[in-house]
Write a structure and sequence with these properties.
The structure is a homodimer of 634-residue chains.
Chain A lengths: L21 E2 L5 E5 H24 L4 H7 L12 H17 L3 H16 L28 H17 L5 H17 L13 H12 L2 H13 L31 H17 L3 H17 L31 H16 L5 H11 L19 E2 L11 E2 L10 E2 L3 H11 L6 E4 L2 E4 L4 E8 L2 E8 L7 E6 L8 E6 L5 E6 L2 E6 L1 E6 L7 E5 L5 E5 L9 E6 L2 E6 L12 E3 L5 E4 L2 E9 L10 E2 L6 E11 L11 E2 L2 E2 L3
Parallel strand pairs in A: 4-5, 7-11
Antiparallel strand pairs in A: 1-6, 2-8, 3-24, 6-7, 8-9, 9-10, 10-15, 11-14, 12-13, 12-15, 16-17, 17-18, 17-25, 18-23, 18-24, 19-21, 20-21, 21-23
Helix pairs in contact in A: 1-3, 1-13, 2-4, 3-4, 3-5, 3-13, 5-6, 5-7, 7-8, 7-9, 8-9, 9-10, 9-11, 11-12
Chain lengths: 634, 634
């Protein structure tokens, strides 16, 4: 590892110019093994290649070549440029964490093709403004031009933050200058139907010291909520144009749009010292977490408009819980975390491990677009060579008409370790656990820390200092909310640490190990009584992982809807999951001619023990039915 | 009332050429007062006029004029012709039950404009095949041409059945001849993406003794389920093209399509003596009723594709329960009833009173398209002058982009009394109650019966014979399933009659009155334990009516989600509804930062009594929250 000579640009996702806390760059943190090493390998070797191959094959990448050649013929829906950009962002982060000559070469080739499609004035979109296409900026509701630009800019920022100021950042500079002319203080009073460009612009402003970019982001945030977008079927709240950002009480409408906008608004608030805006968005997210979020951390209760439902409207069987909404919530919570907000790291852990990582198939070549909490019937296994609409009723699919999720997975996993830890002027805070090493500088002193343990499967997290640090050094540890209380072992002494942030102070000797012990017994979870859809049901968690019951673990004559938790509730931790005492419902299936009437007398069936495994792995053994929430016998 | 001289044509909806049981024509049954008289008046004076005015105003009616003038300019989506036809059908039934010179004149004017748009070869569609339009039959998946034809033919059948063989039946004759050439045994092997033409063709064959029409319907039914339609996003089951009709186990896919197809399949089965097909469809409907039907009789659990969910997937807050699906289920169950199937009249009652009649606003000028069972937040009141998409998150709206529901309401209410009673060779069966008179002929003998009582609000149904009948006369009475047991009072003697069909035999003297007494105390209803979404909740019914709790009946600081049924369960019948002991949830609202964890300790709030009223009336007093299913305190 080396220290960059461009400290202002190098970093991870989100580098505020203000504030005490900063994330680490790919040069400062590195995965060394365990669960996350497997995830990173899958992303590098399978997911990134899969996205690249698909887009080349179906002509999304060559859209840029055609524009460069003066041909406006376009493959795919309007905003597929964004998928190429998210792939570029994934490659940039990946290259930042591990050199790879072949990937670097491919990356540069792709960037060259993108750059060749840029118009003289900086505009760059393969769907609008060229021969045979609709004119630029004629469809802010659905055209997604600014959304695509946002993804291009984020990809450029990833390149800058990984130490390269080359072609893509220059393309982004031309584009941002165009946007400033077109949409700046004297430009069009418009916003994009899909928020995204806001956070990209702030980040670009940070990475290139471009105050216009930050100001333009601010304008976009402030313009929203004033009806600049024409009405659509789903109402103005679909794209958060119903009320000004700072006046909203909760996230609403399209879930990805909502969390992307929240991310951009936090960036603007931090960069402009707008404490009111920051407090408003933080409150909105807290309310969303407390009333509109699934156990997996997923969001989005409506398939129709991919949107939040009302408070406590959280049907497990119709959970939309789009993979991209999970990614978006990581982005927003990471931004809150950097402001010092509590709880954000707990939320990142939950949604990363239980929703983001549920999406890719174990071979990295198919993805859940939606992440249901209850699959009533065995889903359909899509074939691995066909683009499908959204896989709403199926298992993981290789590619989608709107294929936002695979590339979002790729860029998130490529940068995953950059969400693990933060540094302040006096120390290091560890937010996520696993096997990784940190090599950074705190108060001009080199600090090397090695984190180990088989987290998230085992509860012993060991933190070893590879360099000695003095008594002015602070080590912050997250004791997860799910643990309620953890145990810190330091120099043989055990101390109970309640959930939240625990701080230990130096000196730490070279080779000294701190251990955080977390309780890993499987535990029963009950829902809030206002969540109608899962009343009288329980779920099981182990450590940070939500477990699920899959029909593959049941006697062959039963599906998951044929069982309930036995009133004796027998729960035992086993391996990565748990054993739970269930009983079948008898007679099966109960089908009176009319399913409403007098109370059904309890008719206990046979007892048996079934294994529950981490939800994120479900559906990897072929079509199955699955439940996270299981009815408890009355 | 007069006896028609065209007995083969005159009748109500569905006149099988085989079978023991027949419906009555508008000349044989007449509403005389009470609840249904109010409904009929609303339909005649408001709903029919409303539909006519809207379609004239927004150019759907004048689509026909433009085609006649050689202008292919088209207002509205592809299949708005069908709305004009459903209006014509409504007018035909209405005119059949009560002469109305102004309506007759308007009817004839509209028919003239439709007829003028018919092509030489019989084809008649304002969206396809003319200047600037797509070619005929180039989009079976979404074009809806045969669907529109079906509605034209049904309107023509209504005209024939009400005693007029004039212009519209002749238009239909030319159209059916065209269809026979185009789609008959030697024609295209195709089906329409939206079933509807099947039942229309059988009925037209019956009304005009046209065997080709019946055979064509049979071909359409048999062709479906063999992949003749190209795949769509929602899968082949969306338009029931997944398996052959006779092989399916349950209704699935788009709910209106499913019940329209079932109706056509029953018609084909009856007309061709295909007992296997009839048994298959009857089984499918029974399974659908027992596992995929809401308490209101409504169907359709998914907004996205307006479709059935899986078995027992019946979320009250996302109930789609489209008004048209309710109408379609009446049509299918009426066909089953005529075959002698039991339970069909109970289902017709439930869905008519609780879903069909929930749709129109009390002034008949706005409609629910979807009929939710749980409105969490106060809906939006659409303005009365704007076409909206579907009113999914709003109160009743005046008109829709796809405006199938208002005209479906109009034609159903215009013919409602024709679903009330049937005749056999030895008697009369009364299936629905209210205030009406029957004047018909049984075994060559005139029979006049007067039915009275304030049903559905009061449980005393009185049946008075206005003519004497002999001992060979049979009077069949439905004792509703919700009643479990009724009491028959005849000549002072009381007899208990279990739910189902009860038969009384003559002689009945002129002026003799039979009374059926039904228990009208409000009652608690529990859901089947497999319906996850309403576990631990109860509903209240009174007589045939489902009651609902509306926020207008709560203390001003509470919405319906803020209350639960008090464990003491106090329920008292009151007026048309009931009083129920509730308690507030306290503290309100409970918002921990994360809504899952340990079991919530019960925190009883204050007790109070709230009134519940018939669900069908809800939302007539402005925006409110509403629940049918109310959580029962643990």
């Amino acid at each position: 590892m080396e220290v960059s000579d461009k400290p202002s640009a190098v970093g991870g996702p989100v580098v505020p110019r203000n504030g005490e806390r900063r994330g680490l760059s790919p040069r400062e943190i590195r995965i060394t093994g365990g669960y996350w090493a497997d995830v990173k390998t899958l992303n590098r070797e399978a997911i990134i290649a899969h996205c690249d191959e698909w887009m080349e094959r179906i002509g999304w990448t060559s859209n840029f070549d055609r524009i460069a050649a003066g041909d406006g013929t376009h493959a795919g829906i309007e905003f597929v440029d964004s998928e190429v950009y998210k792939l570029l962002e994934a490659m940039a982060w990946q290259l930042g964490s591990a050199p790879d000559a072949a990937m670097e070469s491919r990356y540069l080739q792709l960037v060259g093709r993108v750059a060749a499609a840029q118009d003289e004035d900086g505009y760059l979109d393969t769907s609008f403004g060229h021969a045979g296409q609709r004119a630029r900026y004629t469809d802010f509701e659905w055209g997604h031009e600014l959304y695509c630009f946002g993804h291009l800019i984020q990809a450029a920022v990833a390149r800058l933050r990984t130490g390269h100021d080359d072609l893509l950042p220059n393309v982004a500079r031309k584009l941002v200058a165009h946007l400033w002319r077109e949409f700046g203080p004297n430009g069009r009073q418009a916003v994009c139907g899909h928020p995204e460009v806001e956070m990209a612009l702030v980040e670009f402003g940070r990475a290139t010291a471009n105050d216009d970019a930050v100001e333009l982001a601010r304008l976009f945030v402030e313009r929203r909520g004033h009806g600049l977008l024409s009405p659509v079927r789903f109402g103005a709240e679909y794209f958060q144009d119903d009320v000004p950002v700072r006046s909203a009480e909760v996230l609403r409408g399209h879930a990805v749009r909502a969390y992307y906008l929240a991310s951009g608004a936090i960036d603007v608030a931090v960069e402009t010292n707008d404490t009111d805006l920051l407090a408003a968005v933080e409150r909105q997210i807290e309310t969303t977490v407390s009333r509109r979020t699934y156990l997996t951390g997923g969001v989005g209760a409506h398939h129709l408009d991919e949107a939040f439902g009302a408070d406590y409207e959280l049907p497990p069987d119709r959970a939309y819980a789009e993979t991209c909404a999970a990614v978006a919530s990581v982005m927003a919570n990471w931004r809150l975390l950097l402001t010092g907000a509590t709880g954000a790291d707990d939320r990142i852990e939950r949604v990363l491990l239980n929703n983001v990582l549920a999406s890719p198939r174990q071979d990295g070549r198919a993805f859940f677009y939606t992440n249901t909490l209850h699959q009533r019937t065995r889903g359909i296994q899509p074939d691995d060579h066909t683009v499908i609409e959204r896989a709403e009723t199926s298992l993981r699919a290789p590619w989608f008409t709107v294929s936002c999720c695979p590339t979002n997975i790729a860029r998130t996993l490529a940068s995953a370790e950059l969400y693990f830890a933060t540094a302040t002027s006096d120390g290091i805070d560890l937010h996520q656990y696993g096997q990784y090493e940190i090599d950074t500088t705190v108060a001009s002193q080199r600090v090397r820390i090695d984190v180990s343990g088989d987290y998230p499967f085992e509860g012993a997290v060991r933190i070893t200092f590879a360099t000695a640090v003095g008594d002015d050094f602070r080590l912050g540890l997250r004791v997860p909310d799910w643990a309620e209380v953890g145990t810190i072992v330091r120099r043989g002494a055990e101390t109970a640490a309640p959930s939240g942030r625990t701080e230990l102070f130096g000196p730490f000797a070279e080779g000294e190990t701190i251990e955080l012990r977390l309780p890993m017994d499987a535990r029963i979870v009950h829902p809030h009584p206002r969540i109608d859809a899962i009343r009288g049901q329980i779920a099981v968690e182990r450590g940070p992982l939500v477990l699920a019951l899959e029909s593959t673990e049941l006697p062959p004559d039963l599906e998951v809807d044929d069982v309930e938790v036995d009133p004796e509730i027998g729960l035992r931790t086993e391996g990565d999951g748990a054993q739970l005492l269930l009983r079948s419902r008898s007679p099966k299936p109960q089908s009176p001619s009319w399913p409403y009437g007098s109370a059904e007398p309890a008719a206990p069936g046979r007892q048996f023990v079934a294994r529950l495994y981490p939800y994120s792995r479900w559906g990897n053994r072929g079509p199955s039915s699955m439940r996270i929430w299981i009815p408890a016998a009355p």
